[in-house]
Write a structure and sequence with these properties.
Blueprint (H helix, E strand, L loop, with lengths): L1 H21 L5 H12 L5 H13 L5 H24 L4 E2 L2 E2 L1 H27 L3 H25 L6 H28 L2 H25 L12 H4 L5 H9 L2 H13 L4 H14 L1 H19 L7 H15 L3
Antiparallel strand pairs: 1-2
């Protein structure tokens, strides 16, 4: 992502220092966990969306923008820590997760600590609108996760419910990143809303990309069928069930409910999805959402930040892992 680095590389470097400082603690155990988290941070795509949105929407980065990016990253990190506890996951980004190293109780408290640091960062600087944007995202993420759990029991998710789940569970945080970034430099509600919608559409496309990985749509050297084993109803599978005759539909549902740990049976479902056109259908939906998002940027001037945002969007959709 050369353009992204050229456009906001120096600001990302400043942000990393500010973020590291924001999570420091005087308590030795907590500070040790925080250093572990900092060393193993991800690509920081959400702060990238914050900074690029701020540049495109307004006249330049402010201290409020750095705080918005920190709040988003604190929130994102907290949700990952909590998710690993909920999912009993021992690995995060090819390293041991917090709960694997320090057990569930400490992991939950670490997640709470990160959330509280984000709240205080906003409240102490009176960034009330940005706090409102991110608090709404937390609410929607929780609702989306619970809705998915509820529907997974019956495997009766329709396409409209699927999109509601991923809009809430996945897209809401990216939507908050873009709208918070825009608001940090404009205070303009209309512009902020346009970037909220932009982030939402990109977030939906991003999740569909993850769905496609599970069916081996890209050769990424990772096992396929994980979502099937976890009884997650993704777009390629939903499309397949909608198109299948009753006999095939019953067979697929039976495998997911009762034989989801059998590798051969999981592969059988994957083959049904591929044969039904589910992969192509989901890929088209993903591209449609991406194009709808990029169309929102048309009203803004062409400059390095807009070009970098397009590069970042394409990277998010074209990524191989």
């Amino acid at each position: 992502m050369e353009l992204v680095t050229e456009a906001i590389g120096s600001e990302l470097a400043i942000f990393e220092k500010k973020f590291s400082d924001s999570v420091k603690s005087s308590k030795p155990l907590l500070d040790r966990v925080m250093r572990f988290i900092i060393r193993r941070k991800g690509k920081q795509m959400r702060p990238m969306f914050v900074f690029l949105s701020a540049h495109i929407a307004g006249s330049g980065i402010t201290e409020k923008t750095y705080r918005a990016a920190a709040l988003i990253e604190l929130l994102h990190t907290a949700t990952l820590v909590h998710d690993d506890v909920v999912d009993n996951s021992m690995i995060r980004r090819n390293f041991f997760s917090i709960n694997a190293l320090w057990k569930n109780k400490i992991a939950v408290l670490v997640g709470d600590y990160l959330l509280s640091k984000g709240l205080l960062l906003s409240l102490e600087n009176e960034d009330f609108k940005i706090l409102k944007i991110t608090s709404r995202a937390v609410k929607e993420m929780s609702e989306g996760e619970l809705l998915q759990m509820e529907k997974a029991r019956k495997l009766d998710i329709k396409e409209d419910v699927y999109f509601e789940i991923i809009r809430s569970k996945t897209a809401s945080l990216l939507s908050a990143a873009c709208s918070a970034g825009a608001y940090s430099t404009t205070d303009n509600e209309e512009i902020t809303e346009s970037f909220r919608l932009f982030g939402e559409k990109i977030g939906i496309a991003f999740q569909i990309k993850d769905d496609l990985f599970d069916y081996g749509a890209d050769n990424i050297g990772k096992p396929t069928g994980i979502d099937i084993k976890e009884k997650k109803m993704t777009l390629p599978l939903i499309y397949t069930l909608q198109k299948a005759d009753n006999q095939i539909k019953r067979k697929i549902i039976y495998i997911i409910k009762n034989q989801n740990t059998d590798r051969k049976k999981v592969d059988e479902v994957i083959n049904y999805v591929k044969q039904s056109g589910g992969i192509e259908y989901a890929a088209k939906k993903m591209i449609d959402y991406k194009n709808d998002a990029l169309a929102i940027l048309d009203i803004y001037p062409d400059n390095i930040y807009k070009k970098a945002m397009i590069e970042l969007v394409n990277y998010a959709i074209d990524r191989k892992y």
